[in-house]
Amino acid sequence: MGVTVAIDCMGGDHGPVVTVPAALSFLRSHPAVNAILVGREDVLAPLLGDALAGLGSRVRVHHASEVVGMDEPPAIAMRNKKDSSMRVAVDLVKAGEAAAAISAGNTGALMAISRFVLKTLPGIDRPAICSILPAVKGHTYVLDLGANVDCTAEHLLQFGIMGSMLVAAVDHIERPRVGLLNIGEEAIKGNEIVKQAGELLRGSGLNFCGNVEGNDIYMGSADVVVCDGFVGNVALKTSEGLAQMLSTFLREAFGRNIFTKLMALVALPVLKQFKHRVDHRRYNGAVLLGLRGVVVKSHGSADGFAFEQAIARAADAAGNQLIERISSKMASMSEAAA
Amino acid sequence: MGVTVAIDCMGGDHGPVVTVPAALSFLRSHPAVNAILVGREDVLAPLLGDALAGLGSRVRVHHASEVVGMDEPPAIAMRNKKDSSMRVAVDLVKAGEAAAAISAGNTGALMAISRFVLKTLPGIDRPAICSILPAVKGHTYVLDLGANVDCTAEHLLQFGIMGSMLVAAVDHIERPRVGLLNIGEEAIKGNEIVKQAGELLRGSGLNFCGNVEGNDIYMGSADVVVCDGFVGNVALKTSEGLAQMLSTFLREAFGRNIFTKLMALVALPVLKQFKHRVDHRRYNGAVLLGLRGVVVKSHGSADGFAFEQAIARAADAAGNQLIERISSKMASMSEAAA
């Protein structure tokens, strides 16, 4: 019983040294989840040690001879590496042996492979990448974050549906608030596509709360924020840059001299608590939505803790019928439209 | 001698109580700048006290009977309020009585009025809004931030030119590095317009350093970052939201109990230094670029210190021939193309 996940153990900046211990640690703390560790047997075996025995039939290694490079063009990875750990992990989902795949490998390749192998759900034109960001209150799901640079209003509507169903599955909020990312400038409230998307969302039966602005992502004004992949990617990367700059400045301020270093020492518990609250590792694990299977992308530079969050998200989405929820919402909408 | 600026003293969330003292304080510390304070004489006079005498002919009040509301539709403000302080300040630039106008009023109205009164420079299709953001190294000018939601590749090229000339004028960097905001996803490097804009910028004679991503804004990888107004506005607002969230979290972490409050007290000098470094007030003053005159928009909620920065930016741009620089670059480019 329980959910089985297929883990691409070779992907990411660090590869198996991080993914294997993270997978084992996750399995130990989540007895209802089983895992198939995908990758080169000769590389994975030594890292497993006697863990396989301890976890019994809940974990097994599935050999895959190739690895997709972090900078490899997606088309090449898809065409030439049919036995890559990434491809095999997704194949296992397709074959029904696993309910979800997790990879820290190259996003473009993972998206291309997932789309090719699993195909999109009925009514979904394009899959989207959905991440979670922290907010003053709770957290916010944002999509698309880079899979689709040119979106129609219909695509944005589909993102709204997929995001809502993800929140329903994972956060158990039955009618999540959906906001449409727009700009606040009085003169020109958004472009034509965004205006049309607003109309579609209003008539969708979703809990649409209208336009939101960039700052609303971090205020928690909506559970799901919908935007095209170009805008979403810029918002995400800009946030990463700002967070990095602020952390650099804070470190520099406390590191200036012996007195400021002492102050840092005194303030350590507070700084730690602050750091925990905004720890991006807790939010690791972007969901590739709209496919006939759950696929989760971990950040390439994820450490063990972060990688475990990505596994958790995948197991959670699969265990809470994410795919069925999206399918059934799409079906009911196409019935209503017919 | 010196630069004369026209200040809309009625605009902004606080109006004259903030703008008038800020203007006087600025004039006292900048003896080469003169100011025309625009607004209702009966409101401004009591705030001036005997400052007019002290500053001699360097400052005068220009009466304007109306005020543009912060939420007033730009078209209405433009059509119906010909004697608004905002309109009159821009009129003074048009008439040559001032070299620059500053307003903390509604952005849409200021853009509409400036465009109508001053017109765009030859070769410039659309004015853009350019702000400065802090970076790990130095700072970064970003445009457009919301004036244009649908941009062609040519518009993005023009933004690159205008931004470069602003940096040349204000920061005295003769060949500023210009980056094109794009997304890093391997599969799909930007949409068609951004790709074309890249080609145009490469052939422009500007110091084009290629694509940059959202995080580069805060890394200082380029002096000028060019994007369409929708993307730029989202990036800016997202940053504001994130900064606000982090500052809330930091305050909450230090405010939890008596011990953490004591830690905050100890760490106060460091926190102050950190706060100063990222103080958004220092970056106040967005430049409306591409017009036949310098117009600077202050944040509506600016306090006196922030409003002074906006005045400084306007005086600086006008004093360093911003308009002439843009005109001459546009002329040389159209000659080269002919």
Number of domains of chain A: 2
Could you say what the CATH topology of the largest domain in chain A is called? Isopropylmalate Dehydrogenase
Query: So how many helices of chain A?
Result: 13
- Greatest interface by residues involved: A-B, 71 and 71 residues
- Indicate the low-confidence ranges of chain A by residue numbers: none
Strand content of chain A: 15-25%
Shape of chain A: globular
Distance between the termini of chain A: 39 Å
Mean pLDDT of chain A: 91
- Using the CA coordinates, give the radius of gyration of chain A: 21 Å
Main sheet overview of chain A: 11 strands, mixed
CATH architecture grouping of the largest domain in chain A:
3-Layer(aba) Sandwich
- Which secondary-structure class do the elements of chain A indicate? alpha/beta
- The arrangement of helices and strands of chain A along the chain is EHEHHEHHEHEEHEHEHEHHEEHH
CATH fourth-tier homologous superfamily of the largest domain in chain A = Isopropylmalate Dehydrogenase
Assembly type: homodimer
Strands of chain A, total number:
11
Q: Please write the CATH class name of the largest domain in chain A.
A: Alpha Beta
Major beta sheet, strand line-up of chain A: 3-2-1-4-11-10-5-6-9-7-8
How much helicity do the residues of chain A have? 40-55%
Protein name (chains A, B): Phosphate acyltransferase
Catalytic activity (chains A, B): a fatty acyl-[ACP] + phosphate = an acyl phosphate + holo-[ACP]
Pathway (chains A, B): Lipid metabolism; phospholipid metabolism
Keywords (chains A, B): Acyltransferase, Cytoplasm, Lipid biosynthesis, Lipid metabolism, Phospholipid biosynthesis, Phospholipid metabolism, Transferase
